[in-house]
């Protein structure tokens, strides 16, 4: 009797697997995931139904590489754009700094607040960028020496010496900013162009 019940269970699992596979084939661009497992001799079937429909308008596009900042800004309206540039660091206590950034909503950064809470991207670092990069632009920054992980930043400041592909990352103090130095070949990926 035990052998008969075990054989029936296996047949049931096989039939369920075939049925789900046939449904997956018949539905075109939907897919189904079926997982079967045997834990501690307790036979069971877990069917996980995942449906996804391909939508070309939402499909992830590969980022476009730009050779200059002007090209990057012009392409960023329709694409994620990657370009290489230079990074430096600054603090709100720098010579000529007021403790407020140069773009609306003009947060006070003299209190050590070096991040901005963006509605779409969450907590991001603050950077100063060339005037050709609109305020509110979100960039993903990677290939820096002071962290292994890429991070997101928002353009909320300007600066007299910030030209071209130079981005200036805000730190709590000028002393803290020394960790950056002047790094070349930093990779910037524009995620959102301006507000």
TrEMBL record:
Annotated GO molecular function terms are: hydrolase activity, hydrolyzing O-glycosyl compounds
GO annotation terms (biological process): peptidoglycan turnover
Q: Which residue intervals define the domain 3D in the entry?
A: 126-184
Pfam families, A to Z: 3D
Q: Name one GO cellular component term.
A: outer membrane
Q: What is this protein called?
A: 3D domain-containing protein
Origin species: Candidatus Faecenecus gallistercoris
